[in-house]
Amino acid sequence: MRRLSALLPLLFTLPAALAAIPADTHLPADIGACTAAAPCPVAVLSPGYGLAGTDYGFLTRQLNGMGYLVLALRDSAGGATIDRGAPITPQVQAIARATARGIAALLDEGAARDRRFDWRRVLLVGHSLGGDSSAQFAADHPQRVSALVSLDSRRVALPRTDGIRVLSIRASDTAADPGVLPDEGEQRRHGSCIVRIEGARHNDMQDEGSARLKEAILAILETFLAPARQPAYACSPAPAS
């Protein structure tokens, strides 16, 4: 894989304070409600390959409005380039492992610096490669994850555990690798949600997608996460086509 060595340093920067994976900090709408005694929840937003956290403003705004501190990664690939002429899955999995280590460093530094936020168990939200990196972090650090929202990730297996609630919103123009998605029995056993949006395209699950698609994603997300301090983790029915 070309330039995978670029992942090795993974010295990330957050504005002003944190030093780990490059990310932008987006504060909750009601930041005054976040205290050490009642810390606000934290969400890590991981973009798809070739995109940045800033390409998911519709998700950031929703999460901020629900009381989350959002750490939006600037790049889920760490500067690595995927070789389209070689098998994709092992390349994505290697990138996901490196990015997961960077997310851990990001959270460690946040926990050391700001007690107004709950760094112990975070929400992971990721599109495509970002969802794969999120799933890898959940596999490596299950005790640090409360829930995972995947926007059509396809290469790294999603959690199968009662301790991590899973929502995967699926496009209709792609298919996940075998074993990535929990089967129906696993969904029932662990309360996982798999919701397919008919007509949705994988690459459109970001700010440049249609208003209708973004509205559908936000409605599914809100059902799953409301209320933010004690989410119900409810599954939405598939949106009407």
Summing up helix and strand content along with how strands pair, one would put the structural category as alpha/beta
CATH architecture: 3-Layer(aba) Sandwich
Helix-strand topology string: EEHEHEHEEHEH
Tell me the CATH topology. Answer: Rossmann fold
Provide the domain count.
Answer: 1
What is the CATH class designation? Alpha Beta
Signal peptide: 1-19
Domain AB hydrolase-1: 116-154
Protein name: Alpha/beta hydrolase
Organism: Massilia hydrophila
3D structure, described in words:
This protein is of the alpha/beta class. It has a single domain, classed as 3-Layer(aba) Sandwich (Rossmann fold). Helices cover about 30% and strands about 20% of the residues. It contains five helices and seven strands, in the order ββαβαβαββαβα. A seven-stranded mixed sheet has the order 1-3-2-4-5-6-7, with helices on both faces. Helix 2 (about 90-115) crosses helix 3 (about 130-140). It is globular. The N and C termini lie far apart (about 40 Å). Mean pLDDT is about 90; it is low at about 1-20. Pfam families: Abhydrolase_1.
